Amino acid sequence: MSEKIYQLNSVDHNDISDVLIKIQRSFNITLDYEGLKNITTFGHLCDLVISKIDSEHEECTTQHAFYMLRNAIANVNSINKCDITTHTKLCKLFPKEDRLEAISKIEGELGFNINLLKPKQWIVSIFVLAFIGSGIFCFYNLVAGVAGLLLSGIALKLAGKFGKEMHLKTVGDLACQISRESHSKIRRSPSINKTEVEQKLRELFVNELELEPVMLTRRASF
Q1: Residue environment code for 127-152, b if the CB has 16+ CB neighbours within 10 A, otherwise e
Q2: Cα–Cα distance between 75 and 105 in angstroms, integer?
Q3: What is the distance between the alpha carbons of residues 158 and 164, in angstroms, rounded to a whole number?
């Protein structure tokens, strides 16, 4: 038996607007016209709210990553953390002569790798070509080819370990990278329970608009 689709278009638009305001306050999000104009079902609204919550959490995670990074840099460099902003240049904070040691200390403060340093591109290119050439040479001299593969592989690994080039420019850039790559280590909020969000929305509609819970299926249309 197919699910009955309930129509909610008889509900006063002003009353729905009041519910949307309560939703924004309840979840600390902003629902704008652009996001709402294509919403046609209760399920679509639930998905929109969940995506907004996800977005807000992501912004908080990046902000928290910046604060963690700023504190670590201030401790390692013995500077006032208030002097460090998202626009602060990384090259000023980490001079090339002691960059490896400084970054290692930063990672020790944070408790995870920040993947900031890389070798120069021309060095990587040389060892990659050597690795490819050694693979080809294996067809002519297996022993020499394998030795070349091992040496070029080790050289690539060492180049990555001792590289001093920074591929990011500012503290803000690094905070964004950290929030993406080390999200689980810096996340402040627990994962969103989508079922609980949907249930909360259903309760708001039922209580504020005096609707029957059975009417608020995901396919219920506005």
Answers
A1: beebbeebeebbeeeeeebeebbeeb
A2: 9
A3: 12
Q: What is the pLDDT of residue 1?
A: 45
Compute the mean pLDDT over every residue in the chain, rounded to the nearest whole number.
86
User: Using the 8-state DSSP alphabet, how is residue 189 labeled?
Assistant: S
**pLDDT per residue as tens digits for the range 52-101:** 887 766 667 788 889 999 999 999 999 999 999 999 999 999 998 889 99
Residue 157 CA from chain centroid, whole number: 27
Long-range pairs, 130-138, Cβ under 8 A, ≥24: 130/155, 131/156
- In this structure, the number of other CB atoms found within 10 A of the CB of residue 216 comes to 22
DSSP at 56: H
Determine the Cα–Cα distance for residues 147 and 88; give it in Å rounded to an integer.
45
Between CA 33 and CA 30 the distance in angstroms is 10
